[in-house]
């Protein structure tokens, strides 16, 4: 049988994630990887979770080992309502405004399924979180990319684009504006309060939904927490996506859609078709964990660990890259990523061949574009390697840049 002959348009369009391909190299002995955006396992509260898991399997097996409702665990919902109030100052969230998903990746997929068509338009940031682009792409939607600046998306560019689409009679095709406002993956930047307000104004002017994806908001190292778009504009304008992946463990695969009841209801129906329900066991473990422990307190050592690693990487970048004219990087106030941009002419994908030889890995910026456009940037993740490896890794990276730059006559 010829596979091409039986593939759907979606099937034919599927591509292996560049990140997954590149990360295969990271297990080579002696290598240092700034590639994966996965949390440090030392931050997982494994003893607490193990105790809770044993307890809820033994005592609540009729629930935890059974199918769940598609909406998910009510006890976890109660905890989330409390957490939303404490973390974001968000009130008024009812059960009908919440859907638990299998990671927030599934939330992105479900939202795409219920909102996007082939001829729809969705706005994303440039660079874009790759997983969101992959989920949205399944619908064959048209993308509009809004460049990111140091204080978040270029809202003037966004407004201009929307104005154009409005003039051309296409504004109704625009389904949402997708944004990661805090410690962006991959760009590391945070949207300023001013821009948050501008974005909402623009979205209101053209009556467009905002899809706010916030996996990293609680991982702030310094500076003041900024109000979420959802808090500022409310559920009629914003759907908020959240996840336990970076604040507890990604292994539980628990994401959350917080939004208008009618949108949540549609996403619930789509989830029913996708996987019936997310695991009862995982949700109940998370519920008990939140009941028993103060998540804010529990997170403190992890945040401190990341902050230290980030500082080590920033210092190493200053020491190794300050003399390369045109090289720049973002010092993030939280999250897991630093975005390093090299002078014009560098192609970080092509340069990856030299990086492989020197056993230092990063994610080329090309992975975070919609059209696989060449990029002189790269995502560096500081969360996994120990501090001494960060220092050594940045030194190796400098050697890679120097070798490639000289070969190409760029430095
Ligand atoms: N959104 C963003 C911006 C992310 O960085 C990630 C994880 N890397 C996700 C969503 C998906 O996370 P998960 O499915 O583990 O909740």
How would you characterize the overall build of this protein?
The protein is α/β, with parallel strands linked by helices and 411 residues long. It is built from 16 helices and 14 strands. It has helices spanning 3-6, 9-13, 18-23, 46-59, 61-64, 74-88, 103-115, 130-137, 155-167, 193-205, 229-233, 261-275, 280-292, 295-321, 348-357, 387-407; strands at 32-33, 98-102, 121-126, 142-149, 152-153, 174-179, 209-213, 238-243, 254-258, 328-329, 337-341, 360-361, 363-364, 377-381. The strands form three sheets. Strands 2-9-8-7-6-3-4-5 form an eight-stranded mixed β-sheet, with helices on both faces. It has a four-stranded antiparallel β-sheet with strand order 10-11-14-13. Helix 4 (46-59) crosses helix 13 (280-292), helix 6 (74-88) crosses helix 13 and helix 7 packs across helix 12 (261-275). It is globular. The chain starts with a helix and ends with a helix. 45% of the residues are buried.
């Amino acid at each position: 049988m010829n596979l091409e002959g039986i593939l759907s348009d979606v099937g034919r369009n599927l591509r292996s994630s560049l990140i997954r391909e590149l990360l295969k190299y990271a297990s080579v002995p002696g290598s240092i990887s700034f590639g994966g955006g996965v949390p440090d396992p030392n931050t997982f509260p494994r003893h607490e979770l193990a105790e809770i898991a044993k307890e809820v399997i033994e005592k609540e097996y009729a629930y935890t080992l059974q199918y769940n409702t598609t909406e998910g665990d009510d006890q976890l919902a109660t905890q989330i309502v409390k957490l939303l109030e404490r973390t974001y100052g968000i009130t008024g969230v009812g059960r009908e405004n919440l859907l638990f998903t299998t990671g927030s990746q599934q939330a992105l997929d479900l939202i795409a399924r219920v909102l996007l068509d082939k001829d729809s338009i969705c706005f994303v940031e440039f660079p874009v979180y790759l997983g969101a682009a992959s989920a949205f792409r399944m619908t064959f939607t048209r993308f509009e990319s809004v460049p990111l600046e140091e204080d978040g998306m270029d809202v003037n560019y966004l407004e201009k684009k929307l104005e154009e689409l409005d003039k051309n009679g296409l504004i109704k095709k625009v389904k949402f504006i997708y944004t990661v406002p805090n410690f962006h993956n991959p760009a590391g930047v945070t949207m300023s309060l001013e821009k948050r307000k501008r974005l909402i104004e623009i979205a209101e002017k053209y009556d467009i939904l905002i899809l706010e994806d916030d996996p990293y908001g609680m991982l702030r190292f310094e500076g003041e927490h900024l109000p979420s778009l959802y808090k500022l504009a409310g559920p009629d304008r914003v759907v908020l996506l959240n996840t336990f992946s970076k604040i507890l463990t990604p292994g539980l695969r628990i994401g959350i859609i917080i939004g208008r009841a009618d949108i949540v209801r549609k996403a619930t129906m789509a989830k029913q078709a996708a996987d019936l329900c997310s695991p009862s066991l995982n949700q109940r473990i998370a519920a008990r964990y939140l009941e028993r422990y103060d998540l804010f307190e529990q997170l403190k050592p992890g945040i401190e660990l990341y902050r230290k690693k980030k500082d080590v990487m920033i210092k190493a970048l200053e020491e190794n890259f300050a003399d390369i004219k045109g090289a720049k990087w973002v010092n993030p106030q939280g999250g897991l990523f630093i975005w390093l941009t090299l002078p014009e002419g560098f192609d970080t994908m092509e340069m990856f061949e030299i990086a492989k030889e020197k056993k230092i890995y990063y994610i080329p910026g090309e992975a975070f574009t919609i059209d696989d456009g060449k990029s002189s940037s790269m995502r560096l993740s500081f969360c996994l390697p120990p501090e001494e490896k960060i220092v050594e890794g940045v030194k190796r990276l400098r050697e890679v840049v120097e070798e490639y730059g000289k070969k190409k006559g760029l430095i």
